[in-house]
Amino acid sequence: MDSALAAVVRASGAYGGLLYVLPPGDDAVWQVLVTGVPQEMAAPWRRVGLRDPMPVADAVRERRLTWAGGREEMAREYPRVALVLPYDFGLAAAPLVSGTAVRGGLVLMWPGNHPARLSDAEEDVIRAGCRWLGDCLQRALDRGDPPLPPDRPRTLPPPAPREPSRTEAAGLSAFVDRLPGGSCALDLDGHLTFVTPGAAELLGVDRARLMGALPWEALPWMDVPHVEDRYRAALVSRRPQAFTVLRPPATWLTFELYPDATGLSVRITPGSPDGEAPPSRAVQSSGPSRATVLYHLMHLASTLTEAVGVQDVVEQTADQLMPALGAQGMVVMVAEDGHLKIVGQRGYRRTLLQPFDQAPLSSADPGADVMATGVPGFWSTFDELHEAYPTVAHEDGMAAWAVLPLIASGRPIGSLLLAYRRPHVFPPAERAALTSLAGLVGQALDRARLYDAKHDLAHRLQSALLPHTLPHVSGLGVAARYLPAARGLGIGGDFYDVIRLDEHTAAVTIGDVQGHNVDAAALMGQVRTAVHAHATVGAPPGDVLTRTNRLLTDLDPGLFTSCAYVHLDLATHHACVALAGHPPPLLRHADGRVEPLRVPPGLLLGIEPDTVYPALEFPLPAGSVLALYTDGLVEAPGVDLDDAIAALGGLLESGDPGDLDAMADTLIRHAPTPGDDIALVLISPRASAGHSGSGPIVFPGKKDGRRSKRTGSGGEDPS
Question: Please, what is the average pLDDT of the chain?
Answer without folding.
Answer: 84
